[in-house]
TrEMBL record:
Any GO CC annotation of this UniProt entry: membrane
Entry's Gene Ontology molecular function annotations: monoacylglycerol lipase activity
Membrane-spanning parts: none
Positions of the AB hydrolase-1 domain: 21-118
Keywords: Hydrolase
Pfam family, one: Abhydrolase_1
Lineage: superkingdom: Bacteria
The organism of origin for this protein: Halopseudomonas laoshanensis
Protein name, as recorded: Alpha/beta hydrolase
GO annotation terms (biological process): acylglycerol catabolic process
Classification via InterPro entries: AB_hydrolase_1 (IPR000073), AB_hydrolase_fold (IPR029058), AB_hydrolase_sf (IPR050266)
Coiled coil: none
Length: 274
C-alpha cells in the first residue's frame, strides 16, 4: 500500500478511482478505514484519496508536539507531491479543522470544502467551556484507551441496530497510539482560524448531525460569515454522521460535488444570454 514521505514523516494513503480528486481527511483517533461507507458512492465518479494523518492509522507516529497547522502543512505538501490539481476536500471533526486551516492558509488549493461536524476554532471563552475542556483533557490522560473507546462507542452509536458499528469503532479506537492520540487532542485545544474565514474563496458545504457535540446554531453562525457556503442538517445523527446516516450524507456530498466540480457552470456563465 502506498506511503508518501511528507515533512519527514511517512504518511499512508489510499488512491482509488478516476476523475476529479476528492481528498478525505479523518477525525481524531480515526483513520482512512472510517470512510468505508463513502467509497462505494464516490468511486464510480471520482478519484478518491484517503489520507492517514501523522499519528494515526498506518502513518508514522513521531514524538513531539502536533498542531492543526502542522497537519494542514502535511496535507498541502501531500497535495503538491502527488500533483493533485484543485482537490475537493472533505474533513470530519478534526479533519474539518485541518480543512479550514488549509483553505485559509492556501485558498487557491481546494476546489471545494465539505466540513462535517466541525468548527473553525476550539477556543474556550466561557467558564463552562474551560471546564468542559479541562475535563476532557483530564479524563483522556487518566483513562485507558479501552475505556474511552467503550464510552465513545456508546455515545456516538447508541441504538441497538448500531451494535456492529460500535464493535468496529471500539476495536479500531483501541489500535490508537496513546501518545500520538493525546498529542493530537492537545493540538485541537486553543486552535482557531475564525478571524480568517474571509480568505476562503471556494464553495463550502457544512454538514451537521442534529445531535452533534457542537450545536447547529454555532455552525449556522460561522456559515453566515463564509461566502459561497451552506449548512445542511441531518436528522437522527450524532458526531459520526458519515457512518450513522451514510445514505443521507452521501447524497448531500455527491450533489454538492457535482455543483462544485469543474463541469459545473460558473455564475458568470449562468448569467450570459443564450
Amino acid at each position: 500500500m502506498p506511503h508518501a514521505m511528507i515533512n519527514g514523516c511517512s504518511l499512508f494513503y489510499t488512491d482509488q478511482g478516476d476523475g476529479e480528486v476528492v481528498l478525505l481527511i479523518h477525525g481524531l483517533g480515526s483513520s482512512t478505514r472510517d470512510w468505508e461507507y463513502q467509497l462505494p458512492s464516490l468511486l464510480p465518479q471520482y478519484r478518491v484519496i484517503c489520507l492517514d494523518m501523522r499519528g494515526h492509522g498506518q502513518s508514522d507516529k513521531p514524538k513531539g508536539g502536533y498542531s492543526i497547522k502542522g497537519f494542514a502543512d502535511d496535507c498541502i505538501a501531500f497535495i503538491e507531491q502527488l500533483n493533485l490539481e484543485k482537490p475537493h476536500i472533505v474533513g470530519i471533526s478534526m479533519g474539518g479543522m485541518i480543512a479550514f486551516q488549509l483553505a485559509t492558509q492556501r485558498p487557491e488549493l481546494p476546489a471545494s470544502l465539505t466540513i462535517v461536524n466541525s468548527a473553525p476554532e476550539v477556543i474556550p471563552r466561557k467558564p463552562a467551556e474551560y471546564l468542559m475542556v479541562a475535563k476532557r483533557l483530564f479524563f483522556a490522560h487518566v483513562l485507558p484507551l479501552s475505556v474511552t473507546a467503550r464510552g465513545l462507542a456508546k455515545l456516538l452509536f447508541p441504538k441497538p441496530e448500531h451494535a456492529s458499528i460500535r464493535e468496529t469503532f471500539e476495536s479500531r479506537w483501541n489500535e490508537n497510539d496513546r501518545s500520538a492520540y493525546l498529542a493530537s487532542l492537545r493540538a485541537i485545544i486553543g486552535w482557531g482560524v475564525s478571524d480568517r474565514l474571509d480568505r476562503i474563496n471556494c464553495p463550502v458545504l457544512v454538514i451537521s448531525g442534529d445531535q452533534d457535540y457542537t450545536p447547529v446554531e454555532s455552525k449556522r453562525e460561522y456559515v453566515s460569515r463564509l461566502g459561497d457556503a451552506r449548512l445542511e442538517v441531518i436528522e437522527d445523527s450524532r458526531h459520526g454522521t458519515p457512518i450513522d446516516q451514510a445514505d443521507n450524507f452521501n447524497a448531500l456530498l455527491l450533489d454538492f460535488l457535482r455543483q462544485s466540480g469543474s463541469a459545473a457552470p460558473t455564475q458568470n456563465a449562468m448569467n450570459q444570454p443564450l
